[in-house]
Design brief:
2 copies of one chain form a homodimer. By secondary structure, chain A is mainly alpha-helical. Chain A contains 6 helices and 2 strands. The N and C termini of chain A lie far apart (35 Å). Chain A binds a DNA duplex through helix 3.
Amino acid sequence: MSRVIHNRIAMFRADAGLSRRDLADAVGVNPQTIGFLERGDYKPSLELALSIAEVFGVSVELVFSFEPFPSLSQQLAKGRE
Amino acid sequence: MSRVIHNRIAMFRADAGLSRRDLADAVGVNPQTIGFLERGDYKPSLELALSIAEVFGVSVELVFSFEPFPSLSQQLAKGRE
DNA sequence: ATTGAGTGTTGCGTTAACATAGCAATTTGC
DNA sequence: GCAAATTGCTATGTTAACGCAACACTCAAT
């Protein structure tokens, strides 16, 4: 069991106008931890993933996935906004 | 950051007619690990949570939640089946 | 009566998800 | 110009999520 997990933390964070420190404070972790997650250096615990999704007000699957996320430009071009 | 995470693994597993070994094999972990999760002895990684939800064909939030799940009898009584 | 499947639990070892500190590079505001 | 905020990266330490082995218990089937 070792699968790659893709995430859109940076995208949701930028959209919400939050810095890493802001998000880190909101979920109660170290700011570096957010950086490690965004870069894919390591995978979050379920607890942290649920907390992050909660802050953004979306489901876990919208932020984390085994499948790579399409680029924002691709997705908007499809009219799914 | 340390919140309790409730889960309905046992319920979904029973509904699917799977033993712990079956589920463990399906997601690629040790059978004891499933037992530990069901009892709440420890919380799963996001990777494991996504895999389990994938096996059951439901979203992560339907299996894992910060809020306790209502009993099955309660939920069926509400007519939400 | 006994075999096997499912489960509950304990113990020990490994690994990775965290915390924390530190420093350089870049950007933004004053 | 300088200072503060944000980010990128490295290093070290702790803790908990795992793997794995072992054993007891219950229950269904033969």
